[in-house]
Amino acid sequence: MGRKQGQQKHGKGLTPYQGHGRAFGYFQCPTCDRTWMSGNSWADMGQECQHCKINVYPYKQRPLEKSKDDSSKIDKTKHHPEHLCEKCKRLGHYCRDSDRSRAYFD
Q: Among 11, 28, 31, 104, which is most exposed with the fewest C-beta within 10 angstroms?
């Protein structure tokens, strides 16, 4: 999937998505072939494989879709494993906190 005409590629280019906010990411560990998906995927950031303990970049990402009623799609009881998230580790706190605060500055 290519970039739209006129869309600039930002960042390091380590991931397909190069936007500023969160994305939905698809991951596959190159060592053990474990796959997972995450709604906390970021440009140029990976997540650690639970089995191999290596950082894995998403092979596919798409921007999060906003709907009128997100409450039906978001499972707020599901825990985000901060210890496996590169963005959380770099920030030193839950990565979604930076996403919410960024909305005030965009």
A: 104
Tokens representing 47 are 């997540």
Burial of 7 (0-12, 13-18, 19+ CB in 10 A): exposed
- 19: Cβ contacts below 8 Å, ≥ 6 apart: 10, 43, 63
Residues 6+ apart with CB under 8 A from 8: none
Helix (H) or strand (E) holding 40: strand 35-41
Cβ atoms 24, 37 nearer than 8 A: yes
Q: Give alpha helix (H) positions in the chain.
A: 86-91, 95-102
Identify the three-state secondary structure at position 25: strand
Find the mean pLDDT for residues 4-23.
72
* Residue-wise pLDDT tens digits, 43-90: 999 999 999 999 999 999 999 987 666 555 666 677 889 999 999 999
